[in-house]
């Protein structure tokens, strides 16, 4: 009998990568992907715990499977990722028909655990140690990085890939659950990272995105030598055929001059930095325990502008954090106006049990105020994004073509000529009238119109064969 996997993923890029690797490991055991739980033999949810809403969605999706599981008890239902680590057995209580619970540090075990359930050995749970449940070494060991090699056909796109360079986080911002569920910060050995990049490039990959919660804090020590992110970028820049290297997410305090100089000097490094500020108010940053002041953030911004003047910057903000006043929020607006981010992700504060924030600080900003601040800030950011994009009108950009645009996907046509989408080196989305065969090429596109999140353009070449290839250095 063919085994069929249905998988739903929520959350960050780290989760996308985790799911991709779980899918790859199950494919090696003979699984095929299916788009419907009705048709699946195994149903997996890779979950996120960063905000309550993400968890609610998963519990509601699980609720919808109750009937299906009653009718088909042989289907294996699994909950993976951050919520599995955070809630553990509570998931069995809330959804008793779940068979498998696997934390993000135990994903290598997923295929075996599903086999165990199918062999009739009952429910399976594998999670890592909590941050107070053992010695530092024991806790680190219990969070294992899961980075098996992937074939080109096992990746969502053959010419783009994520590479994990770090797991966990040691910053302990008071609002954030990540250090609790993903464990201590641990860098992956540089030799492994570089080897993975060589193999991906040999498979035709043009763009890699290095992943870590505080990716620019990356360091790895061996034989008395420390490798930092800047060193890693220099080594990855040597990988033949690779065209673009990105890294997310950066932590403001660790944005060293050395790293910025690497981004400036290495043409394959995308001039794009995602450095969340979270707030523009010192008293809020202090309560968040972010470890920097607004003045520090401004100083970092100035260094970025001086060193990499063409860099596009993006940020995250939390509005309505404990004790945030109108004046605090005004200061966030001032920072956004000043920094002119390419885009910002704006979130309403969501109290997370298990964090210092939930323990010691009152979630005292009413939801209506959080919503109003969110909308207000988003409006300001959208205006800035559009103004910044306007500077691209009439200019030519090099676009790594990813595939048909969302609109084209939604109304599939037989013809090869469709609206295509891709990204500039500085991570701006570009949409143009093109050809499916252009996917995976880097093409020059002239921009004629913009919106806050998209540049609209026209391809400058009329050759669309796979041999046409513009180097974007
Ligand atoms: N509530 C709201 N947003 C949060 N983030 C992290 N924790 C919370 C929380 N408890 C946001 C931060 C982070 C992004 C990934 O999610 O802005 O940068
Ligand atoms: Fe969470 Fe702060 Fe770590 Fe980012 S740096 S993952 S916000 S604790």
What is the topological layout?
Layout: E1 3-9, H1 13-27, E2 31-33, E3 42-47, H2 52-63, H3 66-71, E4 76-81, H4 82-87, H5 90-94, E5 100-102, H6 110-118, E6 124-126, H7 136-142, E7 160-164, E8 166-167, H8 178-182, E9 186-187, H9 190-202, E10 207-211, E11 219-222, E12 225-228, H10 229-237, E13 244-248, H11 257-265, E14 272-274, H12 282-288, H13 294-307, E15 312-319, H14 326-339, E16 343-348, H15 356-360, H16 367-390, E17 396-404, H17 406-410, E18 417-423, E19 429-435, E20 442-450, E21 455-459
Parallel strand pairs: 1-2, 1-3, 3-4, 4-5, 5-6, 7-10, 10-13, 14-15, 15-16, 19-21
Antiparallel strand pairs: 8-9, 11-12, 17-18, 17-20, 18-19, 20-21
The protein binds 5'-deoxyadenosine and iron/sulfur cluster.
Residues 50-51, 175-176, 276, 278, 316, 318, 347, 349-350, 352 line the site of 5'-deoxyadenosine.
Can you summarize this structure?
The chain is an alpha/beta fold.
Beta-strand percentage range:
15-25%
Estimated helix fraction: 25-40%
Hetero groups bound?
5'-deoxyadenosine, iron/sulfur cluster
CATH superfamily of the domain at 3-131: Methylthiotransferase, N-terminal domain
Instruction: Specify the number of helices.
Output: 17
Q: Choose one word for the global shape.
A: globular
Secondary-structure class: alpha/beta
Can you tell me the CATH class of the domain at 3-131? Alpha Beta
Number of strands: 21
**Spans of at least 5 consecutive residues with low confidence:** 465-473
The largest sheet, given as strand count, sense and whether it forms a barrel, is: 6 strands, parallel
Strands ordered across the widest β-sheet: 2-1-3-4-5-6
Looking at the structure, the CATH topology of the domain at 3-131 is Rossmann fold
Give me the Rg, rounded: 23 Å
Q: Taking all residues together, what is the mean pLDDT?
A: 95
């Amino acid at each position: 009998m063919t085994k069929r996997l249905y998988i739903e993923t929520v959350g960050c890029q780290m989760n996308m990568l985790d799911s991709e690797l779980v899918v790859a490991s199950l494919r090696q055991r003979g699984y095929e992907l299916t788009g419907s739980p009705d048709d699946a033999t195994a149903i997996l949810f890779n979950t996120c715990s960063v905000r309550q809403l993400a968890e609610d969605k998963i519990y509601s999706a699980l609720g919808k499977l109750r009937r299906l599981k009653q009718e088909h008890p042989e289907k294996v239902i699994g909950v993976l990722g951050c919520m599995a680590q955070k809630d553990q057995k509570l998931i069995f209580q809330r959804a008793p028909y779940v068979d498998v619970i696997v934390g993000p540090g135990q994903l290598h075990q997923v295929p075996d655990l599903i086999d165990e359930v199918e062999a009739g050995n009952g429910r399976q749970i594998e999670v890592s140690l909590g941050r107070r449940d053992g010695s530092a070494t024991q806790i680190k060991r219990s969070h294992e990085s899961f980075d098996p090699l992937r074939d080109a056909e096992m990746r969502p796109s053959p010419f783009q890939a994520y590479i994990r360079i770090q797991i966990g986080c040691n910053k302990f911002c008071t609002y954030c659950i990540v250090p609790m569920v993903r464990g201590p910060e641990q860098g992956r050995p540089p030799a492994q990272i570089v080897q993975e990049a060589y193999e991906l490039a040999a498979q035709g990959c043009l763009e890699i995105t290095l992943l870590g919660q505080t990716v620019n804090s990356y360091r790895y020590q061996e034989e008395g030598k420390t490798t930092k992110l800047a060193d890693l970028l220099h080594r990855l820049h040597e990988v033949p055929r690779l065209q673009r290297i990105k890294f997310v997410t950066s932590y403001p305090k660790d944005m060293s001059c050395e790293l910025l100089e690497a981004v400036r000097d290495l043409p394959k490094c995308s001039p794009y930095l995602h450095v969340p500020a979270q707030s523009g108010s010192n008293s809020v940053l202090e309560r968040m325990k972010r470890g920097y002041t607004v003045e520090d953030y401004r100083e970092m911004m100035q260094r970025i502008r001086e060193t990499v003047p063409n860099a596009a910057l993006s940020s995250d903000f939390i509005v309505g954090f404990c004790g945030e006043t109108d004046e605090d929020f005004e200061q966030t607006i001032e920072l956004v106006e000043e920094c002119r981010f390419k885009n910002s992700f704006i979130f309403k504060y969501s109290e997370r049990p298990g964090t210092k924030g939930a323990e010691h600080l009152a979630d005292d900003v009413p939801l209506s105020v959080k919503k109003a601040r969110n909308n207000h800030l988003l409006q300001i950011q959208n205006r800035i994004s559009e103004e910044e994009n306007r500077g691209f009108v009439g200019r030519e950009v090099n676009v790594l073509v990813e595939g048909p645009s969302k609109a084209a996907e939604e109304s599939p046509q037989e013809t090869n000529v469709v609206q295509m989408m891709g990204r500039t080196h500085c991570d701006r989305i570009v949409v143009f009238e093109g050809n499916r065969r252009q996917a995976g090429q880097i093409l020059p596109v002239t921009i004629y119109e913009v919106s806050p999140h998209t540049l609209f353009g026209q391809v400058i070449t009329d050759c669309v064969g796979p041999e046409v290839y513009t180097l974007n250095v």
